[in-house]
Amino acid sequence: MYNEINSNKRRSVLLMTIFIAIIIGLGYVYSMAVGDTLYGGVWIAIIFSLFSTAISYFHGDKIALWTSGAKPITQTDNPYLYRMVENLSITSGTPVPKIYIINDPAINAFATGRKPELASVAVTTGAIEKLANEELEGVLAHELSHVKNYDIRFMTLVAVLVGSISILSHIFLRSRFLFGRRSNDRGGDAGAIFMIIGIVLAILSPLIAELIKLAISRRREYLADASGSLLTRYPEGLASALEKIAAEKMPMKQASTATAHLFLANPFQGKSLSKLFSTHPPIEERIKKLRTMGV
Predict the structure, then answer these.
(1) Domain span holding position 231
(2) Which of 66, 198, 249, 294 is most buried, by CB atoms within 10 Å?
(3) With a threshold of 0.85, does the pTM exceed it?
């Protein structure tokens, strides 16, 4: 289990390095093609991306809870759920998060908050009603592990990089050099080569960035599975809960692509093309890994 956690952390760092290399490469080719030695357009794009993402970084948790229809509860509203979250928080050594319930028959849950002190956990009514005690505990441990591992903050950084790549691509494609006004800035064949490379990168970079983001998100799910199992010392609890989700194949009523990566399982279960760009690894693979983990 410890090996699984360390392996996923290393792979996540590697993917982030690739992300940064794409941004630097795109910015370099852009500057070479338009003759911008000061990298002005690149800096403007990155600053804009950082500014827009800062809004989601500081207010993203409220937006995610609101869009999912989550309602806050107190200990008296649902003592069973509240005590379970409280006990797991004490065991993990993290503050007790704010607890929310989503009125939805699908089995799912998510955590949000850029640090443990500001964390929130939301659970569907379907999860509370359909999961056994050990299964629900496994689900909650998975979500609390996301908070403890600072996955929300990590994925925010990924969002910044994806946004930067997307904006840089738009700037490149809309630049005047595409219309030939600066075709001679680099001179002859060199300018033409950089122009061709730039167009290809501008078109493919957003797609590559999105695929890397999905890969990172999937890796963080594996990490949370391992961390959650380490917390409960019972991987079978989460594995059994995932089996029920896979068998049910029930999409959530208020599923959103913007918040899909936050949930325990893909909230678009059963919908066409949901697997193609899923932010989650296959449930069958997650179950297999959980059942091969030793404690």
Answers:
(1) 2-291
(2) 198
(3) no
